[in-house]
Structure formats: structure tokens, C-alpha cells
Amino acid sequence: MKTEALPEYVIVAAAGEFEPGLAVGLRFGMKQMNDFLCVVFIYECPVTLTKTTLLEQFDQIWNLFPMDYADPRQAFDGEIDVHALTTEEIHAAIKEYHACVDVLSFPTRYLSCLEKALQINPKSDCLVACEKLY
């Protein structure tokens, strides 16, 4: 797999029936080691993530777990998978939050947004997609 630069912007959108607060997972593919995962909540469509914001999040993880993750600046393979989180994935994200809250910075209200998504995501009938802008 070739290495690609992280995009300057990642735009995430949902189409169909969903309530504001839909939890969406993005998996940024890496050509080596583990992929980076990111959760966003769609309140207004679309949501725009900047490269700076993504790198801040990824660098926290990479610096804490250098044996498991590679530098996303060199290892990104260009693939971003996006999907609405399942109930099981939301429960896993809540568990991860509790395990890492003392060593990682999470967005404001992250836990309460995940808890709200437990009611929103199962009854949502929508498609989610993302677009990369370089």
C-alpha cells in the first residue's frame, strides 16, 4: 500500500432518517501497525474535521502507544472507512473512555454524547459517507 498525506479536511455527512447526535466511526487506514479510529457526532450535516484536529487526536494515541501505532503522517494509506456505530461499538467506546480518560483528552461532552447515541443510533435509518479534501 502506498503512503498518502492526510487530507486537509474530512467532511462527514449522513443522508436519511436520523436524529441529531448520531455517532459515526471513521477508521483511518495505516499501511503498518493499527489503524486510527475516530468518533464524530452529527448534529448538523455535514461535519468538517481538519487535519490539525485529527493529528492532535492521533498524536495523543501514537505517543501513548508507540508500539501499536505508526506516525499517521507517514503511515496513512489513503483509506477512510465510515459507518454509523452499532450499539456494541458505542458500548466499546464508552468502556475505552473510562479506561483512558486519565491519559487522553476527549472532546467536551464526549461521554454524554456516546450515552445519547445509545438511543439514537439503533433507530436511525441513514447512510453515512465522507469526502477527503486535499
Describe the protein.
- The chain is 32% helix and 35% strand.
- The protein is globular and about 40 Å long.
- Strand 2 and strand 3 (36-42) form a beta hairpin.
- The chain is an alpha+beta fold and 134 residues long.
- The strands form 2 sheets. The chain has a 3-stranded antiparallel β-sheet. The protein has a 3-stranded antiparallel β-sheet with strand order 3-2-5.
- It is built from 4 helices and 6 strands, in the order ββββααβααβ.
- The protein has one domain.
- It starts with 8 loop residues before the first strand and ends with a strand.
- The longest helix is centred in the middle third of the chain and has 14 residues, at 51-64.
- The protein has helices at 51-64, 72-75, 87-100, 110-120, and strands at 9-17, 22-30, 36-42, 47-50, 76-84, 125-133.
- The mean pLDDT is 96.
Keywords:
alpha+beta; globular; 32% helix; 3-stranded antiparallel sheet; 4 helices; 134 residues
Computed over alpha carbons, the radius of gyration is 15 Å
State the secondary-structure class.
alpha+beta
Strand content: 35-45%
Range of helix content: 25-40%
Write the element-wise H/E pattern from the N-terminal end onward: EEEEHHEHHE
Largest sheet: 3 strands, antiparallel
Cα end-to-end separation: 19 Å
Number of domains: 1
The count of strands amounts to 6
What would a concise description of this structure say?
The protein has one domain (9-133). It is 32% helix and 35% strand.
List the topology elements:
Layout: E1 9-17, E2 22-30, E3 36-42, E4 47-50, H1 51-64, H2 72-75, E5 76-84, H3 87-100, H4 110-120, E6 125-133
Antiparallel strand pairs: 1-4, 1-6, 2-3, 2-5
Helix pairs in contact: 3-4
